[in-house]
Amino acid sequence: MPALPREWPEAGIAPRARPGAPHWAREGADWPNRAFSRFFEAGGVRWHVQVAGQGPVLLLLHGTGAATHSWRDMLGPLAAHYTVVAPDLPGHGFTSMPPNRQMSLPGMAQGVAALLGRLGLAPEYCAGHSAGAAILVRMCVDGLIAPRVLVALNGALLPFGGAASSVFRPVARMIARNPLLPFIFAWRAADRSVVEGLLTRTGSTLDAAGVSYYARLARHSQHTGAALAMMGNWDLVSLIEDLPKLKVPLVLAVGEADGSIPPADALRIQALLPDSVIRRYPGLGHLAHEEQPATFVALLEEVCR
């Protein structure tokens, strides 16, 4: 594995959490793959990032409302062949919250690029789930990274169609900028059944441990606020306009029971990128990689070869 910067704290050492943020010593006490966790400053953000393994660099970006726990059963097997880099996105999990303007798609792409620059790592391969895939596409189009392949796991790459797009974006911005809403969402999430209901709507069925990681983070207003901020600042219209500029081979992994991203979106993306490849997974929902992690470890190993 590439040498880590000397200024990285040892695993398990984290800055004092700000109000509304989860505590590493409490919520992170049994965090998946904790031994590979480090905390590092880059681009004005204090990042929680997990780095494991050796070999070509494989960058993993989770989706909105998730954190590194999303890769809990994939990181170990992938680390047998790759240097796996998996950060918590800004405001999510144990990464600090940046100013609202940095929660845009270009802003988060620049933030992840700053982290990679501080680590001195350039990904040869990358995979992103949902909004994480959109960040990776933005990074590729903007020349921030140049991987050999990009895998989108139920990627959120297209805006809402028709009139819904013009209605949703202003409403999302209004919701995201209400300072009370993160606290309300976090308060509601203290009821585990609320989180279970939200996860069920994704079309995925997670085990009790999987649900618990989402539930413990959702109780904190910084985490819920970050998800809302992404909604309010997200601009997929510009991304879809730039999508034909993507030169990196794209693999679209689609859970056919996805309740969050219409599986038919993959065909619309393929129409813009005829060389892209679609892989379909019947019966799996939006969190397909958490439902069947071994399936997607095998997919990544295949396409990376």
Describe what is shown at a glance.
This protein has about 300 residues and is α/β, with parallel strands linked by helices.
Provide keyphrases for this structure.
Rossmann fold, 39% helix, 12 helices, 305 residues, alpha/beta
How is this fold's topology laid out?
Blueprint: E1 37-42, E2 45-52, E3 57-61, H1 75-79, E4 83-87, H2 105-119, E5 125-129, H3 131-141, E6 149-153, H4 163-176, H5 181-189, H6 192-200, H7 208-218, H8 221-233, H9 236-242, E7 250-255, H10 265-272, E8 277-281, H11 288-291, H12 293-304
Parallel strand pairs: 3-4, 3-5, 5-6, 6-7, 7-8
Antiparallel strand pairs: 1-2, 2-4
Helix pairs in contact: 2-3, 4-8, 5-8, 6-7
Q: Unreliable runs, pLDDT <50, ≥5 residues?
A: 162-168
Question: In percent, how helical is the residue content?
Answer: 25-40%
Biggest beta sheet summary? 8 strands, mixed
CATH fold description: Rossmann fold
CATH architecture: 3-Layer(aba) Sandwich
Structural class: alpha/beta
Strand order of the largest sheet: 1-2-4-3-5-6-7-8
CATH superfamily: Alpha/Beta hydrolase fold, catalytic domain
Order of helices and strands: EEEHEHEHEHHHHHHEHEHH
